[in-house]
Design goal:
151 residues, Jelly Rolls, 12 strands, globular, five-stranded antiparallel sheet
Amino acid sequence: MNIWADEWDEAEDWSGGGGRGRRLVGSGPQLGASLYELGAGNFGGYHFHHGSEELVIVLRGRPTLQGPEGERQLAEGEVVHFPLGPEGAHGLRNETDELVRIVVAGIRVSPEVVEYPDLKKITAQARTDSQTGERLWMIHDVETDSDSSTA
């Protein structure tokens, strides 16, 4: 496998960010890595993990990182670590006209819960089957105070 090859996995983009990705060979039960390419305007949603730390390596381009402290543009070759919980919240987007290519690596826990504050969603997933017989993958819409009414 070559990180510069244009070979991409078919994947559902439920968050609407666009872009392409593929799992890298050698990803195992404990450690995983994926290659992503973001075209102009594509993004990876702002999120944080409850079980999996992540690390991003910028191979090409200058993506904008959204984090708890604000936003900044990353440089080619930059490496950023995202710890567990809200302090590790992150999202990447391509605000340039050039392609962005990144590697995202992290530990793989199962089950895992991921929160998407901007989308007001929480996902839960596992590598084991759920009661439906399918692998666990669910999206929960977070209700805000303004969404509910009290009598």
